[in-house]
Amino acid sequence: MLSLRDLSVSFRGRPVLRNLSLDLAPGETLGLVGESGSGKSMTALALMGLLPPGFVASGSIRLDGNELLGLADADLCRLRGRAMAMIFQEPMTALNPVLSVGAQIAEGLVLHGLMAPRAAREEAIRLMERVGLPDPARRARSYPHELSGGQRQRAMIAMAIACRPALLIADEPTSALDVSLQVEILALLREIRDETGMAMIFISHDLSVIHAMADRALVLYGGLAMETGPTRHVIGRPSHPYTQGLIAAIPRGSAHTERLRPIPGQVPDLSRLPPGCPFAGRCDLGDARCAETLPPLRTGLTALHCHHAELAPA
Amino acid sequence: MNPAWRHPSFGVGAVLMALVVGAALLSLVWTPHDPTVMRIMARLRPPSAEHWLGTDQFGRDIASMVLVGARNALLVGLVAVGIGLVFGVALGMLAALYRGRLLDEAVMRGLDFVFAFPAVLTAILILTWFGPGLVNAVIAIGIFNIPVFARQARGATLQVLAQDYIRAARLAGLSRMAVMLRHILPNITGLMIVQGSTQFAFAILAEASLSYLGIGTQPPNPSWGRMLNDAQTYLGTAPHLAIVPGIAIAITVLAFNLLGDGLRDLLDPRMKER
Amino acid sequence: MVLFLIKRLVGLVLTLLFAALVIFLVLEILPGDPAAMMMGVSATPESVAALRAELGLDRPAAARFLEWLGGFFTGQLGLSYTYRVPVAGLIAERLAVTVPLSLLALGLAVAFGVTLGTLAAAHAHRRADLIIMGMTQLGLAIPNFWFGILLVLVFAIGLGWLPAGGFPGWAADPMLASRALLLPAIALALPQAASLARITRSTMLETLSEDYIRTARAKGLSRSQTIRRHALRNALIPVLTILGLQFSFLLAGTIVVENVFALPGLGRLLIQAIGGHDLILIKSLVLFYVATAILVNGAVDLAYGLADPRLRVGRA
Ligand SMILES: Nc1ncnc2c1ncn2[C@@H]1O[C@H](COP(=O)(O)OP(=O)(O)OP(=O)(O)O)[C@@H](O)[C@H]1O
Ligand SMILES: [Mg+2]
Fold first, then answer.
1. Beta partners for A66?
2. CA atoms B69, B72, B78, B82: torsion sign
3. How far does the centroid of ligand 1 lie from the alpha carbon of residue C240, in Å?
4. Which of A74, B224, B254, C43 qualifies as a cystine partner to B245, CB 3.0-4.6 A?
5. CB A191 within 8 A of CB A213
6. Which pLDDT belongs to residue A299?
7. pLDDT tops 90 at residue B121
8. Separation of C212 CA from ligand 2 center, angstroms?
9. Per-residue pLDDT reduced to its tens digit, A15-72
10. A55 CB less than 6 Å from ligand 1?
11. DSSP letter, residue C86
């Protein structure tokens, strides 16, 4: 249903995302994993057609066969919230402080012509009940500041699934929450996904969360897809030196809480990225060729961009 | 070329200000006619080769009066801003130094109070008491400027005081006064100049209003606001009297507003780094 | 919260009292002999003495002050020296001009200021923005009384559409009366609209960079729908606080503009009172202006709490 071909995003001539290709089937979940600044959010925003000013996307994004790139904003508006929806990273600031939670959930239903305002308000209460908000009839009249972080994220989820989108993009929906809440929200998202059969792009910097949520995983680094494949292979038998480094760096026992700080060296500044593999400077196998030419896509058990890695047999 | 000139507000503001200052300076040495000489035979003349902008109801040359008016306007701005700056900055720095204590509270409350009076009203109150006139009008406007500068100065001083090097300077034995003069004053000068530019514009507008009402500059001193008052009486027969003084006020106010805006951008540290 | 409100109210009342005290001091105590000041140099000692008696100046200042304050509640503010009619009646009569004029101007200023500021922010750094911002600079630079004169030149003297000045009174012909207020209101609104537009632009730009704007867009709202339904209210909350200060300027503006258009309002009354050295009238008028400015600022503070649910009282 969703198919990206050579999607690139740049900001003032600097690449932020390079030649990303992927396909997503209905009901499937893709886990997008990578360190901070690797371009995860920009990928999501490019899909939604909501890149901040100054960012330019090229390539192809097809949703149910329709090309999204280059579509007029008015046409994208019909798709946003209806065909594809998004949950944002920051539950504290992603809700409008001066509108009641119920009104914000109901808004999309009315906007896309699915319901009359009154019916939408009732549907909003049902949705709030579905996402596990206590006392939804009263909560619908509350304002965001009266909700806790977890409750706000539940409200965000209710808002995103209101119009039953075919694709849900969840950008680190649990990163701002503490661990026990994280587990609950992840369970909720899984339930809703299985119930509705929607496809999902789940973004996280936490491999264990990706492991719990995604059928397939895509490891992003410096705007380039390092390795992609079934989650269990990417995590269980990674071929790319970067992925291997990531997994080796997970501290045992507390994989949930630890942010990725895996590999020696710094995440490269995107403005001074080498023309070749962004990982070249930090990679054990890196050589002059790595820094100069973009490695081709090679496919084994997983698909990866690397000159050197030995592919695990499929 | 200095990058400052490329800032559009600053550039346009600077050019306009040069125009006004030029006119004021020119009027010191030369005007087409003597602006105070009345010629009853040549009343309310439209613009001509002899009188470029015509004459007023007493036959005085408008062009000359407008030129001399520039001097008046700049003087008003300078003095009114000067009063606001001197007292405002002193009070603001003092309040910041004794932050949270009685003195701070008293100063800031007092200034809030002055601020609660609409400016023109403060001026009217003062002019009622002291009698109308240019000097009193300027003092009145200056008084309104004090809280504006004081608030800014207090905020800026508090920011500077929070810096580590101030604490170091204090530990090194520098007295409060020395810290204020040597470290704080230079640091808040930029901000005060920006505010000064804006208040300059405000002062010129306020003086024009008061003079228009007849309680500011008194004849025979030349004032654009006063000229507009006279012009209104003859609006039907000599509309040209009402145009040029208004344009002169607008240009001068625009000049200082733009200059202030431009300076604010240029002094903004985020802009400086580029 | 209740405590906060009480504190605010007490502060307000104290400010008002203090304002009254200052006005009283400046106008009645500092001149030494107000009666002599009012009558000018040509007055005979007898007539000054008579006025002094009429004003009750022989009584202690504190008593006079309290009596004057009480007058604001009972309406006994004394007789105007120049008009020989009760001050309270004069003020009430003139309010019928000044209040509608201020409200009309405020309405115009808010409507134009907010619309233009929002438009400028929506087209930030593009041509429409530059044009609007240029216009606001002009609006701030043009003195409102001169703008009034220009309006009279064009619309009254030139085109003859609207009256050049004067006021026929509400009773005679309400239609004509409101037409008489139109040009003055426009003149009065110009600088207010300009500064409101600038403030709205900057708060709107700040609001448009908030996360919840992106959330609204992700829901499928168009840019303009997002601005109207999600950004405007948030952007206007800070504008509201400025509105109190703006009103002070507007009030001061009425004094000038009423004189441009010869409108029989409070401002013209004040200038006439000053011309006639009518201290009795002046002190009540000035306090009336100042009290209005202070009360409006106080009311705006409270309205701020109502507009922002985060500050609203009594919700769980
Ligand atoms: N407003 C912006 N202007 C310029 N560059 C930006 C901006 N926002 C993000 N970037 C750049 O785009 C790159 C990708 O950022 P993105 O937000 O997609 O990272 P991310 O993977 O989502 O990281 P995080 O885990 O911190 O959310 C970053 O390197 C960042 O430097
Ligand atoms: Mg992100």
1. A63
2. negative
3. 35
4. B224
5. no
6. 81
7. no
8. 15
9. 899 999 999 999 999 999 998 889 999 999 999 999 998 999 999 999 998 999 999 9
10. no
11. B
Q: How far apart are CA A200 and CA A184, in angstroms?
A: 18
Query: Among C15, C18, C289, whose Cβ lies nearest the Cβ of B118?
Result: C289
Q: Which residues of C touch B202 (CB under 8 A)?
A: none
Among candidate residues C14, C288, C69, C302, the one with its CA nearest the CA of residue B109 = C14
| CA A45 to ligand 1: nearest atom | 18
Q: Are strands A224-230 and A216-221 parallel, antiparallel or unpaired?
A: antiparallel
User: pLDDT digits over A91-148, tens only?
Assistant: 889 999 999 999 999 999 999 999 999 999 999 999 999 999 999 999 999 999 999 9
Chain C residues close to A201, C-beta within 8 Å? none
Give the pLDDT mean for A257-279: 64
Closest by alpha carbon to C137, among B10, B70, B255? B255
CB of A163 within 8 A of CB of A108?
yes
Task: Give the model confidence (pLDDT) of C67-112 as tens digits.
Answer: 888 888 887 888 787 788 888 889 998 999 999 999 999 999 999 9
3-state secondary structure of A241: helix
Closest atom, ligand 1, to C-alpha of A39 = 18
Separation of CA C14 from chain center? 21
Look at residue A284 in the predicted model and tell me its pLDDT.
76
Q: What is the mean pLDDT of residues A240-256?
A: 71
Q: Ligand 1, residues A12, A36, A48, A205: which to mutate, most atoms within 8 A of Cβ?
A: A36
Q: Which two tokens stand for residue A250?
A: 């997970």
- CB neighbourhood size of A197 (10 A): 11
Residue A139 CA to ligand 1 centre (angstroms) = 34
Helix C174-208 and helix C144-151, axial crossing angle in degrees, nearest 10: 130
DSSP code of C278?
Answer: -
Rounded Cα distance, C47 and C149, in Å: 41
Nearest partner of A242 among A287, A299, A281, A215, judged by Cα = A281
A33 φ/ψ angles, rounded to the nearest 5 degrees: -125, 145
Predicted TM-score (pTM) of this structure: 0.86
Whether B85 contacts B196, CB under 8 Å: yes
Q: Is residue C302 predicted with pLDDT exceeding 90?
A: no
Angle formed at CA B100 by CA B97 and CA B101, multiple of 5 degrees = 80
Q: Hey, whose CA ends up nearest to atom 28 of ligand 1?
A: A37
Centroid of ligand 1 to alpha carbon of A38 (angstroms): 7
**Is A11 a pocket residue for ligand 1 (Cβ < 6 Å)?**
yes
Kindly report, residue by residue over B17-26, the tens digit of the pLDDT: 999 998 888 8
Q: A111 CB near a chain C CB, below 8 Å?
A: yes
- Ligand whose nearest atom lies closest to the CA of A15: 1
